[in-house]
TrEMBL record:
Organism, scientific name: Pelagicoccus enzymogenes
Cross-referenced InterPro entries: AB_hydrolase_fold (IPR029058), Esterase-like (IPR000801), Mycobacterial_A85_antigen (IPR050583)
One Pfam entry name: Esterase
Protein's UniProt name: Esterase family protein
Lineage: Bacteria, Pseudomonadati, Verrucomicrobiota, Opitutia, Puniceicoccales
């Protein structure tokens, strides 16, 4: 499992984070790009590196550069994930240029995919929707579209992009709890299922391509692991 790692300092966010990169066998031809937010959750709990390694071995991701982006800490995650413009600026003005500099063959990537889960599923969608044409596809697993009274859904209803990304949305059939107090100032009034379905309906209404899957389970790493291979095959297969 060939990986490289570096630390990226963000002047925009005034912090630094670890970046892990899984390189394909050849770096001499144009590469697709997969940016995975929530690196610690995906790497340590979802076991995404092994899932992705299996897809490399099957040829599904043969020419894809996989970039895992650290969330720094849970406290930072609470700040950066709920549709936070400085985080989107970090991705577009600091992270992607650093990838292009290290891997010039990603500049002409045919597929540019950003992936996240729960709060970072929301963040991935926000980054893609606010930067027209930057990403071709979004993978959002159990995205927290309930955040801030469904702000992202309301903000983009009626808006159109010149180069809209396609969306893979999934959610578990047991993610039905309402009125969840995540912390003192963050309350989720609708269920994860309802939030994802509202976001899906807004996208379809406004002409986006959407694949919507439900999986058996709740808001858990084990459940996301069962859905992730289908999401990656949809995005990059």
């Amino acid at each position: 499992m060939p990986e490289t790692e570096y630390t990226l300092r963000s002047e925009i966010l005034d912090n630094e984070r670890r970046i892990w990169i899984r390189e394909p066998a050849s770096l001499q031809t144009d590469l697709d790009l997969l940016i995975v937010l929530d690196a610690e959750l995906y790497r340590n709990r979802v076991q995404a590196p092994q899932i992705i390694e299996d897809l490399f071995e099957s040829g599904t991701l043969a020419q894809t550069l996989v970039v895992y982006v650290s969330s720094v800490s849970m406290d930072v995650r609470w700040i950066e994930c709920p549709c936070y413009p400085p985080f989107a600026a970090f991705v577009t003005k600091e992270l992607i240029p650093s990838i292009h500099e290290r891997y010039p063959k990603t500049v002409q990537a045919k597929e540019r995919v950003i992936a996240g889960l729960s709060y970072t599923g929301l963040a991935a969608s926000f980054v893609a929707l606010t930067h027209d044409g930057l990403f071709t596809k979004v993978i959002s697993q159990s995205g927290s579209y309930w955040s801030n009274d469904c702000w992202l859904i309301r903000e983009f209803d009626g808006q159109s992009l010149n180069h809209p990304p396609a969306f893979f949305l999934d959610v578990g059939d047991k993610e039905t709890q309402e009125y969840v107090w995540h912390k003192e100032d963050v309350v989720q009034t609708i269920s994860q299922v309802e939030g994802v379905e509202r976001f899906r309906d807004m996208l379809l209404k406004n002409g986006y391509e959407v694949r919507y899957d439900t999986f058996s389970g709740g808001h858990s790493a084990e459940a996301w692991a069962t859905s992730l291979p289908n999401a990656l095959k949809w995005a990059l297969g």
